[in-house]
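Colleagues,

For the teaching module next term, I've prepared a clean inverse folding example: a structure given as tokens, and then the sequence designed for it. I'd like students to try predicting residues themselves before seeing the answer, so please don't circulate the second half yet.
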């Protein structure tokens, strides 16, 4: 299970709750990859993250904390996104911030 998969809204807004605790260059690079994927998939950054988690081979279940119906409906659209392996892998590399061995 992925608790707070959208980092308390930071994925959607691009702002972190505690910027001092975050590598801003890494975060910016990740957001750029998410934005390119969102543009290619015709959705927003939030849906890309949720679709990425749902496609993870370990069967991750995102746990959303929102009580706002519009946000929940929007998040549910991630289940219809068809993300190819190359896009998924680019997001993985950006999230890790380094190449895999």
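(Answer key — instructors only)
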């Amino acid at each position: 299970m992925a608790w707070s998969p959208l980092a308390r809204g930071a994925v959607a807004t691009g702002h972190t709750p505690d910027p001092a605790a975050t590598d801003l260059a890494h975060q910016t690079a990740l957001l750029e990859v998410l934005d390119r994927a969102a543009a290619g998939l015709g959705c927003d950054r939030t849906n890309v993250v949720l679709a990425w988690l749902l496609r993870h081979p370990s069967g991750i279940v995102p746990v959303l904390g929102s009580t706002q119906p519009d946000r929940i409906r929007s998040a549910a659209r991630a289940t219809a996104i068809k993300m190819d392996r190359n896009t998924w892998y680019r997001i993985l590399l950006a999230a890790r911030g380094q190449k895999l061995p």
